[in-house]
Amino acid sequence: MNFKLIFILLYVFISSLVTFILFYVDKQKAKHHRWRIPESTLLSFSFIGGSYGAFLAMKKFRHKTKHPKFYIMVPLMMILHIAILIFAFVKLI
User: Fold this and answer.
1) How far apart are CA 19 and CA 47, in angstroms?
2) pLDDT recorded at residue 1
3) Residue 16 burial (10 A CB sphere; 0-12, 13-18, 19+)
4) 13: pLDDT confidence band, cut at 50, 70 and 90?
5) How many CB atoms lie within 10 A of CB 36?
């Protein structure tokens, strides 16, 4: 397997894991009425590669599922990331 491809997959995995954790922390803070992670931060981490983690966290924790900017933007970012991954696989293999 190509080193660049491994790097891309590792990047997506790590950014998704970090985003998943951020959504979890924000949900816990919401439950305890504490300071929250800004929505712009959550969306930014989703945009830079963590859309898969954001989507999974939204489903698992039922967090941010009623906010249009999340239930619309996160799936759109996933589609964008899937297209980028397909392009990378085609170009790098």
Assistant:
1) 10
2) 63
3) buried
4) very high
5) 13
How confident is the prediction for the chain on average, in pLDDT? 94
DSSP the chain: --HHHHHHHHHHHHHHHHHHHHHHHHHHHHHTT-----HHHHHHHIIIIIHHHHHHHHHHHT-STT-HHHHHHHHHHHHHHHHHHHHHHHHH-
C-alpha angle 20/56/1, rounded to 5°?
80
User: pLDDT, tens digit, for every residue of 56-70?
Assistant: 999 999 989 999 999
Alpha-carbon distance 77 to 28, whole Å?
A: 24
Q: Tell me the pLDDT tens digit for each residue of 29-38.
A: 999 999 999 9
Rounded distance, CA 26 to CA 20, Å? Answer: 10
Rounded distance, CA 27 to CA 31, Å?
A: 6
